[in-house]
Amino acid sequence: MKIAIIGGGNMGITYARAFVRSNIVKMEDLLIVEKHDEKREELKKEGVAILNKEISAEVSDYDIIIVAVKPQDFKAVVPELSRVLTKKQLIISIMAGIKISNIQSALNHQSVFRAMPNTPAQLGFGITAFSAPENSSMEHVSIVDTLLETTGKCILMKNEEMLDAVTALSGSGPAYFYYFVKHMIEAGKQMGIEEPVSSMLVKQTMLGAFQILNNSKMSIDDMIKAVASKGGTTEAALNKFDSTAVGTNIIEALKAAEKRAKELSNG
Ligand SMILES: NC(=O)c1ccc[n+]([C@@H]2O[C@H](COP(=O)([O-])OP(=O)(O)OC[C@H]3O[C@@H](n4cnc5c(N)ncnc54)[C@H](OP(=O)(O)O)[C@@H]3O)[C@@H](O)[C@H]2O)c1
């Protein structure tokens, strides 16, 4: 299989590394088109052999094209890419908020898949939801699934509209987690614990709690109960969360992210 990646930024390089690491593609069968000179230099140091500054006729020889430029840069990519596309090629767009139908009509190409990854993909712990174009074959869906799974878990969303909710949930999700962690570390500091120690306590707590969450058969409510004894310290904190509507606000915040994703999708 030969894969071309348009845009060698954070996500583009994540896929390049994951494909090579998983033996899906050999380095010599991977092309990255990256307009930024410095980034091309970095990619060269990583061992990427075929690096182009612009989309050229060579792209026609690749089976899969991953479009990994920022959504606002897609317009500039369209004239060059549509010129070199061949019918049998499969396109996977990871651009946030650009609908399959818009990419299909811009590029005049039917086989367009759309995926929403997240940044833990860099370490192989990502979760990617993707949607397939109408009438796509099982074979194509399976190829895309295999490619995306090289960066973590992967789930097919039959209804493409759900990708806005996915963007709000797992696409942006890592930032919410960092935000919560940041405030826990700050709380530790305000209670007199030095930052590196507070940071270690919080990070290891999150890791440990995640392991329980992922391995226990208990419900989340029961897990909370297992930590919070009646009249104890955890309950004091949870009561504060409830009285200041932290839970409701988290839900509202994610709905705001979904609303923004919809606005961006609808241009
Ligand atoms: N980061 C995330 O958490 C995340 C999650 C889900 C989806 N996504 C999507 O993934 C895509 C890439 O995000 P990213 O964070 O990897 O962005 P990024 O680091 O900015 O990477 C995009 C790269 O594409 C280059 N580029 C722009 N136009 C080009 C062209 N015509 N030909 C070749 N290269 C071109 C950019 O160069 P310049 O810097 O010179 O413009 C940049 O190096 C976005 O569409 C985003 O919506 C990102």
Written account of the structure:
With 267 residues, the protein is α/β, with parallel strands linked by helices. The protein folds into two domains: 3-158, Rossmann fold (3-Layer(aba) Sandwich); 173-265, ProC C-terminal domain-like fold. Helices cover 52% and strands 13% of the residues. It contains eleven helices and eight strands. It has helices spanning 10-21, 37-45, 74-84, 100-107, 138-148, 163-171, 173-190, 195-215, 220-227, 233-243, 246-265; strands spanning 3-6, 30-33, 50-52, 64-67, 90-93, 112-116, 126-131, 152-156. Helix 6 crosses helix 11 and helix 7 (173-190) crosses helix 8 (195-215). The chain is elongated and about 70 Å long. It binds NADP nicotinamide-adenine-dinucleotide phosphate. NADP nicotinamide-adenine-dinucleotide phosphate binds at residues 6-12, 33-36, 39, 68-71, 73, 76-77, 94-96, 116-119, 171.
Key terms for this structure?
single chain, 267 residues, alpha/beta, Rossmann fold, ProC C-terminal domain-like fold, 2 domains, eight-stranded mixed beta sheet, 11 helices, 8 strands, 52% helix, binds NADP nicotinamide-adenine-dinucleotide phosphate
